[in-house]
Amino acid sequence: MTDNRDILITEVALRDGSHAIAHQYTVDQVLNVAKALSDANVPYIEVSHGDGLAGSSLQYGLSKTDEMKLIEAAVSVAGESKIAVLLLPGIGTLHELKEAANLGAKMARIATHVTEADVSAQHIAYAKELGMETVGFLMMSHMAPVDKIVEQAKLMESYGADTVYTVDSAGYLLPDQVRERIRALKQSVGVNVGFHGHNNLSLAMANTLAAIDEGANRIDGSVRCLGAGAGNTQTEVLIAVLERMGIQTGVDLYKMMDLAEEIVAPILHVPQEITRDSLTLGYAGVYSSFALHAKRAAEKFNVDSRDILIELGKRKVVGGQEDMIVDVAAEIAKARMK
Amino acid sequence: MTDNRDILITEVALRDGSHAIAHQYTVDQVLNVAKALSDANVPYIEVSHGDGLAGSSLQYGLSKTDEMKLIEAAVSVAGESKIAVLLLPGIGTLHELKEAANLGAKMARIATHVTEADVSAQHIAYAKELGMETVGFLMMSHMAPVDKIVEQAKLMESYGADTVYTVDSAGYLLPDQVRERIRALKQSVGVNVGFHGHNNLSLAMANTLAAIDEGANRIDGSVRCLGAGAGNTQTEVLIAVLERMGIQTGVDLYKMMDLAEEIVAPILHVPQEITRDSLTLGYAGVYSSFALHAKRAAEKFNVDSRDILIELGKRKVVGGQEDMIVDVAAEIAKARMK
């Protein structure tokens, strides 16, 4: 590995990208992708169910392959690259974290809703005990004002996070909104600051460059855009753009391009595009899991599901509040009849 | 039409998007797309062969349908929207321009290489005579320094262009490069300034927002990203982003989303992605027509076609200089043997 990298990339196609293929990764696919990523000198490779360790379930989607087998496979070919795992407290537990560490995972990314960093304390501390590098991952970062994000990031830092991430889970943030978040974090925490973007508004690259410009030095990308919604910042494209800008990632551009074209593209059943559904989620700023509920409610009340999602976004409805979806649909139908 | 639009959008899916489907548009498809665009209140709809009027040829690709039939069809359903045509002097002639005007086309966009505005004089003047609104379209704008672009734009303004465009044909420009170009044009010309971006580096949206921030008020987009290379700024996504920013386009967001999903997506044989080839073109900053030549030369000399394209970009090789491609391949092969 080179040691003059300006930015350390975490490749998330084997975790976030799992959403794009309904969690159907096989051991062979993970071996091929992780090996090629390691050959291209990508420093961190995240491997887990799309919703983190232990995400495989009827609620979040069943994995085709036990994620521990996938982690083990990735570790076996990772070389100098480090395997990362994602864990959402409440879905994954300390048990899975330990199992992943025992298999050779070197980084634990503990993800919470942007206002709920306190639930990450135990997991971050335990990951440190296990000798892992730790990341605090503040999801749905558009849902909190800047000072709240700073407060939550400081909590994660106090628990032992080596890096705190602003995560634009819904692909909702505009570049200036990313700037103010990263700038505030850089001014307030002493650890690394990272950014994870989604492309629902075709702004993943713009937001990533804004984050880097403000001092973020940990960046997530997904090769060939494999990720939830419209996918993430496309890693091989990001490497090209950063090369053009003279920013060192240490990642081999040609190898990333070849991996994207020859190994990852054939895994995708449907190429990643910005569709009506993913655009709606990014515009509204809501969880992708709301989409299906909203469609059902829209049909029942004969309203446009987009109006429901936009209203849910305005009300900052979060996961667990799915009951609100039917209420909102009913209100829209009622208002229309007046 | 609303009259408080901040930005006037030109939809190019029926012209630039023609590249994405090998110029196979049918009259029915154009009728459906143009009607839906008009219903969504898009002010300008461009219809022509991908390489402009009279582009249908063995060299540039044969159109399935005579473009005049497509223009006529689009005009018949355009309502308040205006049909635009693109013309590259040297490919199209005054004859085709007149024919298009007679069919009801209301805007002529005269496109030249960024350093060759002088060849547009006659065509811009003639379009004015025909009563058309006129646009000077400076292609491959990354290939000239800012002062050269200003000089060329002023020429177009002097010929009668109502608008001058910075065109990032190769999808090569970075947002700061767009900023400096648009800023200089705004300071130097009295007419409207426009921007046309391509997404090869996943920066079409970022570049478009940079252009608008610097005062561009004419913007090109292509619904569902239909365009050469990795496609253009995705129109329906742009409308959503501008709504979020409080910038008025007068275009109906839901109708654009529905059109993209229900009418345009089914036309595409292969969804628009950023592939190895389109990324290479954007990274190198060369004409898409060089790609095939470079692959052939790469095979002959056993070198990587990307190295050839990057070197051609550095040397600012332009269309008509295809002989250089083999020379460059030979040089790379020779240098490697040393």
UniProtKB/TrEMBL annotation, chains A, B:
Identify the residues that bind Mn(2+): 16, 196, 198
Q: Where is this site: Transition state stabilizer?
A: 15
User: Locate the Pyruvate carboxyltransferase domain: which residues?
Assistant: 7-257
PROSITE patterns listed in its UniProt record:
PYR_CT
Q: Which InterPro entries match?
A: 2-IPM_HCS-like, 4OH_2_O-val_aldolase, Aldolase_TIM, DmpG_comm, DRE_TIM_HOA, PYR_CT
Q: What is its EC number?
A: 4.1.3.39
For binding substrate, which residues are annotated in this chain's numbering? Answer: 15-16, 169, 196, 287
Q: Which SUPFAM superfamilies match?
A: Aldolase, post-HMGL domain-like
Q: Which UniProt keywords apply?
A: Aromatic hydrocarbons catabolism, Lyase, Manganese, Metal-binding
Give the first-level EC class, as a single word.
Answer: lyase
Give the reactions, separated by semicolons, that this protein catalyses: (S)-4-hydroxy-2-oxohexanoate = propanal + pyruvate; (S)-4-hydroxy-2-oxopentanoate = acetaldehyde + pyruvate
| Gene Ontology terms, MF aspect | 4-hydroxy-2-oxovalerate aldolase activity
Active-site positions, per UniProt?
19
Family designation: Belongs to the 4-hydroxy-2-oxovalerate aldolase family.
The name this protein carries in UniProt is 4-hydroxy-2-oxovalerate aldolase
* UniProt source species: Niallia oryzisoli
Phylogenetic classification of the source organism: Bacteria, Bacillati, Bacillota, Bacilli, Bacillales
